[in-house]
Amino acid sequence: MIRRLYDWLMRLAAHPRSLWAMAGVSFAESSFFPIPPDAMLVPMVLARPERAWVLAGVCTAASVVGGLFGYAIGYFLYETLGQFLISIYGYEDKFDAFRAAYNEWGLWIILIKGMTPIPYKLVTIASGLTQFDLVVFFLASVATRGVRFFLVAALLRQFGPPIREFVERYLTAVTTAFLVLVIGGIVAARYVI
């Protein structure tokens, strides 16, 4: 099953509309969707390393725009949609403490959490909820998301063939490690917030 999913992702990576699909996932992940865009970025760069910079740029831009949507959820819709999204991830009991910390350390929280597997949507919603400075939020999001996605693209572009061979040889272990990382980020966020 994992091999079929991997083969499907590699075929999708070569599809003419794959860039739009990755942009959609990247946008959604920054505001409400649980799957990180790396799930599409990695196979797309492995399949087309010559497009690594374009892919990282689209991923970054869509993530930042999605982050602005998450900010709007926190700013305008926290009482309805924002609380619902926070409760889905099981953070409602710790979110008030996170909001207090955010008022003091907001910029550092954006910079650090934007590069980790901790769900970025928590940062975007919290930024809107605390009415964090929108320009600083935007610039920090561009920096942190850009570093994350361009670093992934650069590593895959530079070391792509051996990485692709490793991934294909140990696909189950790599997939498991990726899922552990994503789930670990969500669990870590529950204890950090």
Would you tell me the overall average pLDDT? 80
Largest sheet: none
Percentage of residues assigned to helices: over 70%
Low-pLDDT parts are none
The secondary structure category is: mainly alpha
Task: Describe the model.
- With 193 residues, this protein is mostly helical.
- It has one domain.
- The protein has helices at 2-14, 18-29, 38-47, 52-76, 78-88, 95-113, 120-129, 134-169, 171-192.
- α4 (52-76) crosses α8 and α6 (95-113) crosses α7 (120-129).
- The longest helix has 36 residues, at 134-169.
- The mean pLDDT is 80.
In short:
With 193 residues, the chain is mainly α. 82% of the residues lie in helices and 0% in strands.
Structural descriptors:
single chain, about 190 residues, mainly alpha, elongated
Task: Record the SSE blueprint.
Elements: H1 2-14, H2 18-29, H3 38-47, H4 52-76, H5 78-88, H6 95-113, H7 120-129, H8 134-169, H9 171-192
